[in-house]
Design a protein that fits this description.
435 residues, six-stranded parallel beta sheet, 18 strands, binds NADP nicotinamide-adenine-dinucleotide phosphate
Length: 435
């Protein structure tokens, strides 16, 4: 504890300990500096940052932080008598989990931006928040600056939500936009994303759908009030998408997007991440570059879409700051917002989900081929909506779009098609979403 800080306390000051001062933490400290007066005028609460914990004390920061506030003692921050609320923007599961549990056990509300933690050990930290009767707020954990968690938790509490679909990873949306608008191949678009700082040197978490999967687990939990963890989410990434897939989709009136899809079906919940062909007229199709958007389908409310910056220091810090103000005002009123209560439910396996499917086949160009191929679809009860032939001779390709079908039936169709003598190559399957 630093001497002198306690004596400055007045009743409307809420003292904040920030764990982490990287992209988000530094931007948050900057925003609090800029906005403290306006926030006080609007809410009656003055936010004051009293501790900032980091790993490396000598690192240069994007924001000026008084040496007196900086510490490496993260555990000390969560129990410090000069800290009323803890903001966790370190990331990863440990030590973040232990620190959040420590803060709640000390009676301090917590604000976090940590999707990895919530998607893996969310149940434990929400139970600790309920036990402590303290807020645990996490707006920034999904879609950065887009205020979707609060909407799902509060505004839509009375709404039976059927489906939440999101473009929640800016890196992959940037890559797919480059591929569709400039004809770039996947490797070149990824290299450009890395050059611009949109993609990490190891892009696996983004391009293989892990990041979007963690966000999908959190969105499904909050939208449906059920317990979903990252391991429940089926995910496929974008690394196998070719410029050809995108060009054919374009000719047919679709745009290829990586979607996180959370659905409630017959009392169960299905959660998945995969590339999908989205009709050009669908609002999600117009979300370009590194932007994110979340599309919500409700019973009474109809369709809603939330669009904006899904990442970046300042947009994400803006969401953290909104939570921080809520937590501070609640603390001053000796109350808290809605608690995360998540029931157990069956998570529908991918095999049992349904969609329309796009399937390109390279086939021999001779009579009887179409009959043989459609026979395989019929055998597995997969009904064809459109079938087109593109090219002739060695270039001949059949392109199918099915009616709504079960994933397991479509996969069985694919297996049989691969064994068919007239089929030279089965192209990449894409699900068609939002027709
Ligand atoms: N960046 C975004 O656009 C974005 C968007 C949405 C959500 N988020 C989430 O926000 C969180 C923070 O992301 P970020 O981009 O700000 O990360 P970052 O730039 O890597 O910053 C992490 C900070 O945590 C500190 N830290 C790491 N391990 C620590 C430890 N063991 N003890 C003390 N301090 C430690 C680091 O200290 P040093 O600086 O001394 O190394 C650094 O200041 C993550 O959960 C992330 O998923 C980020």
């Amino acid at each position: 504890m630093v001497r002198g800080l306690a004596s400055r306390r007045v009743s409307d000051v809420v003292r904040v300990g920030v764990l982490g001062c990287g992209n988000v933490g530094a931007a948050l400290i900057g925003l609090v500096d800029e906005q403290a007066g306006a926030i006080e005028a609007r809410t009656g609460v003055r936010l004051e940052i009293t501790r900032v914990a980091v790993r490396n004390l000598s690192r240069e920061r994007a924001v000026e932080v008084s040496e007196r506030l900086l510490t490496r003692d993260t555990a000390g921050v969560v129990t410090d008598a000069d800290v009323d609320i803890v903001v966790e923007v370190i990331g990863g599961i440990e030590p973040a989990r232990e620190l959040i549990l420590g803060a709640l056990a000390s009676g301090k509300p917590v604000v976090t931006a940590n999707k990895e933690l919530l998607a893996n050990v969310g149940a434990e930290v929400f139970a600790a928040a309920a036990e402590a009767n303290r807020d645990l707020l996490f707006e920034a954990a999904v879609a950065g600056g887009i205020p979707i968690m609060r909407v799902l938790r509060e505004s839509l509490r009375g709404e039976p939500i059927h489906r939440v679909m999101g473009i929640v990873n800016g890196t992959t949306n940037y890559i797919l936009t480059k591929m569709s608008e400039e004809g770039a191949d996947y490797g070149a678009a990824l290299a450009e994303a890395q050059r611009l700082g949109y993609a990490e040197r190891d892009p696996t978490a983004d391009v293989e759908g892990f990041d979007a999967g963690a966000k999908a687990a959190i969105m499904a939990s909050v939208a449906f009030g059920v317990r979903v963890v990252a391991g429940d989410v089926y995910h496929e990434g974008i690394s196998r998408i070719t410029p050809d897939d995108i060009a054919v989709a374009d000719r047919l009136g679709y745009v290829v997007k990586l979607l996180a899809i959370c659905e409630r079906v017959d009392g169960e919940v299905a959660v998945r991440v995969h590339p999908a062909m989205v009709p050009r007229a669908h609002p999600l199709a117009s979300v370009r570059d590194s932007y994110n958007a979340v599309f919500v389908e409700g019973d009474a409310v109809g369709h809603l879409m939330f669009y904006g910056r899904g990442a970046g220091g300042r947009p994400t810090a803006s969401a953290v700051l909104g939570d921080l103000i809520d937590a501070a005002v609640n603390l001053r009123h000796h109350t808290h917002g809605p608690m995360g209560i998540f029931a157990r439910t069956r998570i529908r396996p991918m095999d049992e989900t349904t969609a329309e499917y796009y399937l390109p086949l390279e086939v021999a160009d001779r009579p009887g081929v179409l009959h043989a191929v459609t026979g395989v679809f019929a055998k597995h009860d997969v009904s064809i909506r459109t079938a087109e032939q593109e090219g002739r001779g060695d270039e001949a390709q059949l392109v199918f779009i099915t009616h709504e079908a079960r994933e397991a039936d479509v996969q069985a169709t694919l297996r049989d098609l691969r064994d068919l003598e007239v089929v030279k190559r089965v192209g990449g399957l894409l699900r068609v979403i939002g027709s």
